Model the fold of this input.
Amino acid sequence: MNEITLHNTLPRVFAGRDAVPSDVWQRELRFERGKHYLVSAESGTGKSSLCSYIYGYRIDFDGRIDFDGRDVRSLSVKEWCQVRQRHIAYLPQDMRLFPEITALENIQLKNRLTQHKSEAEILKLFELLGIGDKVHSPAGKLSIGQQQRVALIRTLCQPADFIMLDEPVSHLDDTNNQLVARLVMEQAEQMGAGVIATSVGNHLRFDADAVLHL
Amino acid sequence: MNSIIWKLLRQHVSPTQLVGFAIANLVGLTIVILAVQFYRDVKPVFDDEESFISKDYLVITRNVTSAGAMMGGTTEFTDADIADLESQPWCRRVGRFANSEFATYATVGLGSSRAMRTEFFFESIPTAFIDVDPAQWDFDPAHPSVPVIVARDYLSLYNFGFASTQGLPRVSENQIGAIPLSFTFMGNGLHEAMPGRIVGFSNRLNTVIVPDTFLTWANQRYGHGGTANPVRLIVEVNRPGDVKIENYMKEHRYDVAGDKMTSSKANYFLTIIIGIVITVGIIISALSFLVLMLSIYLLLQKNTRRLRDLLLLGYSPSQVSSPYKRMVLLINAAVFVLALVGLWLARRWYLPMLAAMGVKGSSITIAALVGLAIMGCITLGNLWAIDRKVRSLWIQD
Done:
């Protein structure tokens, strides 16, 4: 997948508003593979909605979203599974870890589907992000900041054309923010992937090709 | 991968509910297949044409003790009587018994001192009503030889009553054909003998039967043409045990030979009772199916969040639902196997009783297929429900 384009897209909840001052909604917008985008927004402007539309689990929008010119509404369930396994790596804002299984099992759940990283590589990432001692802890017992890092590792356990991160560092300190940013950039570079990161305040410390205000 | 998914999805699986379903369904299914099998095992007793419970045929006579007969009324059936019988909805067809109108002697043996001679009589009915299928059931005046079918009771009477007290040998049905038999007919000034042979034994007809062709020929030759109205009729009915038949017979003062009406009723009630039992079994199975459906819905509902999150990771709906489908398949397969075991145990108990009545029992294929079909439907329903529920989670608006 080389580009994701938005054509006059608007969440239905915003319909009826006269004008939505935004760089994203009701515009022609193109996310290109290999480029980095920061979507900056205030709370309630539809940033998580944008991610859910692109990731295909919500369709309550007007206008159109295309993957390489193909309307996402025409994708079959099977094709969406492929998108989620091979093309778009997504870190949801609420992380969606399973609290009852360990941090490592949460990662394995994704990695066994994609066979993208070895267990050694995964453990190395745990170490790198400073949570090496939490590998076998139930995810529900981790702090929000630790969970955010586990969820990030899970996001990186797949091949991708785009890495889409919804507030990836909202609960991280500056040092960890930089660690995460470096890791994401590194992985994106290796795969030639584009990065779309959203933020309400604590921005991911990376060089964005474009900053979009929702 | 599967173990981690199962670790997640087994949350909220309620063993109590599943065991409840399994037991309920086991009971229902066992009742159904046992009823089907029992019916098939017992049916031959009722269906067998050779059996004492010959169910479709009634032999009727006019009640000779009725006032009409005492006062010189006839015991014959008129054409109108027969037409009225034939017009009844439960009547399939009516056959007339024809009688011999001449004197007959039968001689058993070769004319030596041990030969037995006795007065004899014949009747005939249309071949379609005869419950044995003898070869050469015909008569040719050019080569006279009279085939006869006698009631099996007569053979029993000889073997168990006569032979054992008189020191005579018992004879089997196979041996009887080899016994030399001849008939002497007298009438119209004639006195003729011709050979005869017993070609079969009937349970349905409590008399001595010869082919229609012979009796017509003989009545003309030795009697006066055989045109009299019949005094006995054989009626084939399509609803054995029907109360209407009994009422009709009572109303017209007809006697039904033997206890065939009673045994026909037994068969009729067997069918009804088996039908009721099968219905009850199916209702129990259907209710247990609903229990499982509810249980599955509840389970999926409680695990909605987990299922959705797995879908977000890139798992397909079929991958996500497969642990539940495997669970359902496993439970249903176990129920089916246990029901077959139940069937086997029940048959081990009742087959010896049937064996005492000379019934061997039939194969369990049909019962097993019925069970398989019911479990198949239940399983398909369950799988469809799981699929539908999981697919409904795909879009998370």
User: Anything to note?
Assistant: Strands of chain A lie at 3-11, 28-32, 36-40, 61-67, 70-71, 88-91, 162-166, 194-199, 210-213.
